């Protein structure tokens, strides 16, 4: 059960602006976004954990103990050709969420929203950092990595979130589920990464990533997608 404890040195203000829904707000005080990022940096308790499993892409089965079958055509297509998978979990802890709630209850609504957006940016950066740390280890074993895919993306149902909690060992870093299948702490991430054998004579075909793979077109955090 590898554990990820790399420090969070910076929170991206541009991504924080996007998660706050302010990408088109030209006259918003940038310093308020920077302040939210600094506050989140002080409050964050970055932690991550991951596990490696064999995977049967024909039946979409993660060969954990007990095994579980992944539901959804898009996630199945995304993992096609993979014979191993990584299940990961990451979090920034409870302190940021507690402060977001406190500021909201005090009527500091803008500050609460910006801190919430900075916390979302932070946990995504932690997950990104985990991918970057894992990639060379897998490459040394002859494997390439697909980008991470979480329940709720595309047609992968949230009802499978308990399996990710179990197989990633998320509870070892304090991440669990509410009765409505929401992650607790709320600023947490669970995801799967497919591993495929690198072939010298073949070029890996990439499937759509992130927002391009998700059918939730009305999501306020959706990135702008362009056809090339």
Nutshell version of this structure?
With 228 residues, the protein is an alpha+beta fold. Helices cover 34% and strands 18% of the residues.
Q: What does it look like?
A:
The protein has 228 residues and is α+β, with helices and mostly antiparallel strands. It has 6 helices and 9 strands. Strands 1, 2, 3, 4, 5, 6 and 9 form a 7-stranded antiparallel beta sheet that branches. Strands 7-8 form a two-stranded antiparallel ribbon. A hairpin with a 5-residue loop joins β7 and β8.
Tell me the distance between the termini. 40 Å
Radius of gyration: 18 Å
- Helix coverage percent: 25-40%
Structural class: alpha+beta
Question: How many β-strand runs?
Answer: 9
Low-confidence stretches: 224-228
Residue-averaged pLDDT, rounded? 89
**How much of the sequence is in beta strands?**
15-25%
Please report the number of helical segments.
6
Categorize the overall geometry.
Answer: elongated
Q: What is the element string, with H for helices and E for strands?
A: EHHEEEHEHHEHEEE
Largest sheet: 7 strands, antiparallel
Labels describing this entry:
228 residues, alpha+beta, 7-stranded antiparallel sheet
List the helices and strands and how they pair.
Layout: E1 3-4, H1 13-19, H2 30-43, E2 47-56, E3 61-62, E4 68-69, H3 73-78, E5 84-91, H4 95-105, H5 109-139, E6 143-145, H6 161-168, E7 176-177, E8 183-184, E9 188-197
Antiparallel strand pairs: 1-2, 2-3, 2-5, 3-4, 5-9, 6-9, 7-8
Helix pairs in contact: 1-5, 2-5, 4-5
């Amino acid at each position: 059960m590898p554990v990820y404890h790399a420090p969070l040195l910076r929170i991206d203000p541009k991504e924080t602006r996007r998660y706050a829904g302010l990408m088109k707000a030209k006259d918003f005080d940038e310093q308020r976004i920077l302040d939210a990022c600094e506050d989140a940096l002080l409050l964050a308790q970055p932690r991550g954990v991951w596990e490696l499993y064999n995977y049967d892409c024909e039946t979409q089965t993660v060969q954990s103990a007990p095994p579980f079958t992944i539901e959804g055509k898009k996630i199945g297509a995304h993992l096609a050709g993979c014979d191993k998978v990584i299940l990961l979990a990451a979090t920034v802890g409870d302190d940021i969420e507690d402060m977001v709630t406190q500021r909201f209850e005090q009527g500091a609504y803008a500050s609460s929203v910006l801190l919430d957006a900075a916390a979302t940016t932070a946990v995504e950066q932690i997950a990104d950092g985990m991918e970057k740390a894992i990639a060379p280890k897998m490459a040394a074993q002859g494997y390439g990595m697909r980008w991470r895919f979480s329940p709720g993306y595309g047609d992968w149902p949230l009802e499978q979130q308990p399996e990710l909690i179990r197989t990633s060992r998320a509870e070892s870093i304090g991440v669990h589920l509410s009765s409505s299948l929401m992650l607790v702490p709320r600023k947490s991430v669970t995801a799967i990464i497919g591993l495929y054998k690198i072939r010298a004579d073949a070029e890996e075909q990439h499937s759509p990533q992130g927002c391009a793979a998700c059918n939730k077109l009305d999501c306020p955090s959706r990135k702008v997608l362009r056809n090339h």
